[in-house]
């Protein structure tokens, strides 16, 4: 099974499923329409196979890029037409009038249905012609025969790191000495055992340079020392021959005809009972380590192996018995960054002219302590005029310079190694982060829900979509593509940030593939396509942003807006929108949402706008909506139609009242900060217990009941009964807070947290529960 949408294949995943559904017996299609759909299905299956094959090519030529772009754009256009058609077929009235009225209504429905089929048949005809033209063009230029560009020489980007003079390095003494201590310090019965230490960190942080400094500083302390590089696609025979040539030194060993087993056996026999140090640089796979480690005897005279990798899981695997032997390399400090930059750009730390100081600070902020970026940009600027204007030009165009300037080629290649190593679904999820501004803290749950709404997540291995999405998030952290923020009590990262150089990389790639269109930094030159698929507007960075009148926004699937401007495009133009995320805190007018019911494909709606106090009653018409996040609004009463949202899985509010009829919302998995007060009916409290899929529940109790105790007891009884029912279903996390004089003692007296509960807390009464199957802890929380 594959994702509904991805950067490589466009919308073909979901499109093929929808075409298959249309051809089922559920839809009664005209013969011409059915024939057109069958043709498209066959043609698109062939295109899909081609796109999946090309997604494995790291650097396709220009002709292939044009073909890939054409097919992706075609898939989006076809899906937009199919969605519109399926919506019109599903839009018939559900009422059941009788007699003459029913007869007339049936006739009108038949007429409307015939007209819909006729219009759709015309559109299918146009799409068929485009599909045929695209296939013919592909065959005419033999795009299928193209594998990748072969004109570029294969240069080992690690060589400069191996031959950097010590005097040109900064900030390396502390990490080097710590690693030497890790490798050489021996205790107790395991003193003679082989010790494996791993250096892990993102590309460009200086892992190879650091490992080489450790290697050089330990010369003479081991009988044999070897330094080998592995890379993404290791040639094991070549690696083992390299090891042999280094341990035999001047001796000539004829091993060209040996297989891997003979090479490993020879290395093991030679190193037995000898003290050795092996540096294995740039390892990417656990499978590679499983093979390589066979060459080294474990009980061997306090020997050591030092490994470098970009992937946390690989580092831990190589040092599996001792995770304290994993060294996470850090970016350079601000002081060391400045020292390195000025040394490379001006020859000395105090050589920077006064007029370039603030520009240098801006460039260093962009580098984020990444030695590779600092050295590359400093070397580039060393050959430029030392004028403020020239340096500002470089500062303002770092992203485009990374893409085009030959002096930046090495850095681009090193950064792209990690991107190209990602599976296609993670490439898609990573590129999606380009919609967020620089230095933005991206919340994990918010991001995962957006990925789900876009169709990027595949539910496999017994995981649901949210669990799979969190695995994607963790995998990007594991690969050092994103930086974790706010580590929680359970070890999970609450959010992430993207390093500025990585952000430049993914913005460049997203724009090239028309995956995302940005209006943000006024200094950034952006590619603009007529048809926009995902649009991000950052009015904080660019107040006078004007969306081009030539831009077709009716095909936009994701709209993200930061800040506010008077010329924001009206929502009525975004007919294909799946994701709407508005973040401007205070000033968005309520009437901006008046046409929201027209967004028939909307799956994710987040409003971070304090001024919004109510939502249109027509909200219930958004039948595909999965997430509604209103936590940063002042909406206290939800529209009655909200209970019609049959696919809504996540409802996040800011003390909005529990709606009547909530039992209809059977897809709900998370219900957060819903308020129960004196206006809440007893029937609503009872219905709460019927939400069979609910996993996360946060309640605010705010009742002021002045009647008899029996009324209060009725509220408490119904709430406890609902919680008991939920506890026997899927409830995993619950948090209840109360205001004023509303006591939570009744919960402690009459409700026992269920065994499946992972987290439970209350914040009026300081007692709460944190339960993981069998353990019960006390949380000391308090809230006024």
TrEMBL record:
Gene Ontology process terms (BP): defense response to bacterium; innate immune response-activating signaling pathway; plant-type hypersensitive response
Example GO molecular function: ADP binding
Keywords: Coiled coil, Leucine-rich repeat, Nucleotide-binding, Plant defense, Repeat
Domain Disease resistance N-terminal per the UniProt entry, residue ranges: 11-98
Domain Disease resistance protein winged helix: 435-506
The UniProt record lists the keyword Repeat: yes
Residue span, NB-ARC domain: 179-348
Name recorded for this polypeptide: NB-ARC domain-containing protein
């Amino acid at each position: 099974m594959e994702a509904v949408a991805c950067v490589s294949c466009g919308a073909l995943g979901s499109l093929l499923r929808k075409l298959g559904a249309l051809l089922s017996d559920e839809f009664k299609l005209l013969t011409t329409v059915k024939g057109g759909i069958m043709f498209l299905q066959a043609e698109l299956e062939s295109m899909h196979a081609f796109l999946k094959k090309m997604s494995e090519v790291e650097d396709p030529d220009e002709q292939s890029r044009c073909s890939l772009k054409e097919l992706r754009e075609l898939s989006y256009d076809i899906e937009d037409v199919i969605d519109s058609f399926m919506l019109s077929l599903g839009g018939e009235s559900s009422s059941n009038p009788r007699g003459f009225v029913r007869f007339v209504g049936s006739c009108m429905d038949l007429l409307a249905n015939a007209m819909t089929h006729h219009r759709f048949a015309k559109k299918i005809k146009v799409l068929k012609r485009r599909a045929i033209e695209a296939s013919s063009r592909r065959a005419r230029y033999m795009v299928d025969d193209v594998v990748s560009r072969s004109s570029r020489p294969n240069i080992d980007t690690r060589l400069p790191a191996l031959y950097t003079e010590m005097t040109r390095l900064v900030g390396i003494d502390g990490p080097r000495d710590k690693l030497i201590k890790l490798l050489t310090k021996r205790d107790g019965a395991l003193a003679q055992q082989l010790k494996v230490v791993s250096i892990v960190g993102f590309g460009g942080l200086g892992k190879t340079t650091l490992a080489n400094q450790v290697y050089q500083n330990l010369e003479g302390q081991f009988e044999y020392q070897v330094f080998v590089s592995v890379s993404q696609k290791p040639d094991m025979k070549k690696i083992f021959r390299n090891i042999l040539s280094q341990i035999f030194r001047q001796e000539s060993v004829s091993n060209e005809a040996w297989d891997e087993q003979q090479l490993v056996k020879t290395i093991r026999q030679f190193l037995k009972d000898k003290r050795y140090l092996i540096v294995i640089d740039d390892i990417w796979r656990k499978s590679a380590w499983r093979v390589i480690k066979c060459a080294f005897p474990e009980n061997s005279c306090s020997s050591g192996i030092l490994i470098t990798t970009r992937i946390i899981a690989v580092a831990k695997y190589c040092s599996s018995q001792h995770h304290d032997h994993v060294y996470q390399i850090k970016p350079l400090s601000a002081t060391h960054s400045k020292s390195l930059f000025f040394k490379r750009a001006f020859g000395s730390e105090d050589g920077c002219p006064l007029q370039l100081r603030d520009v240098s600070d801006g460039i260093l902020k962009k580098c984020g302590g990444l030695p590779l970026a600092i050295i590359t940009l400093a070397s580039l600027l060393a050959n430029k005029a030392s004028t403020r204007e020239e340096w500002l030009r470089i500062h303002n165009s770092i992203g485009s310079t990374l893409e085009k300037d030959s002096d930046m080629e090495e850095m681009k290649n090193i950064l792209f190694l990690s991107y190209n190593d990602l599976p296609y679904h993670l490439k898609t999820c990573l590129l999606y982060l380009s919609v967020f501004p620089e230095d933005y803290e991206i919340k994990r749950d918010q991001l995962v829900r957006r990925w789900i709404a876009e169709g990027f997540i595949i539910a496999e291995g017994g995981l649901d979509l949210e669990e799979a999405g969190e695995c994607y998030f963790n995998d990007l952290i594991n690969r050092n593509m994103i930086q974790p923020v706010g580590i929680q009590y359970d070890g999970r990262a609450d959010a992430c940030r993207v390093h500025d150089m990585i952000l430049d990389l993914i913005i460049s790639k997203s724009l090239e593939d028309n995956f995302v269109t940005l209006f943000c930094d006024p200094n950034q030159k952006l590619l603009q396509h007529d048809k926009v698929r995902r649009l991000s507007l950052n009015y904080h960075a660019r107040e006078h942003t004007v969306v081009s009148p030539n831009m077709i926004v009716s095909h936009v699937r994701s709209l993200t807006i930061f800040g506010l401007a008077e010329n924001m495009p009206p929502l009525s133009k975004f007919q294909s929108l799946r994701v709407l995320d508005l973040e401007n805190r205070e000033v968005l007018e309520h009437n901006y949402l008046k046409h929201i019911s027209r967004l028939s494909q909307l799956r994710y709606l987040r409003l971070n706008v304090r001024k919004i106090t109510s939502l249109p009653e027509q909200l219930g018409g958004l039948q595909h909506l999965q997430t509604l996040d209103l936590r940063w609004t002042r909406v206290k009463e939800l529209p009655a139609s909200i209970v019609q949202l049959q696919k809504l899985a996540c409802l996040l509010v800011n003390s909005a009242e529990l709606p009547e009829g909530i039992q209809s919302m059977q897809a709900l998995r998370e219900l957060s900060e819903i308020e129960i007060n004196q206006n809440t009916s007893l029937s609503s409290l009872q219905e709460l217990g019927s939400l069979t899929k609910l996993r996360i529940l946060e309640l605010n109790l705010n009742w002021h009941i002045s009647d008899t105790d029996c009324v209060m007891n009725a509220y408490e009884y119904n709430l406890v009964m609902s919680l008991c029912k939920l506890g026997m279903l899927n409830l995993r996390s619950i948090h209840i807070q109360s205001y004023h004089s509303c006591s939570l003692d009744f919960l402690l007296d009459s409700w026992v947290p269920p065994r499946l509960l992972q987290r439970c807390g209350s914040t009026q009464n300081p007692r709460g529960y944190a339960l993981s199957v069998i353990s019960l802890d006390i949380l000391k929380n308090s809230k006024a």
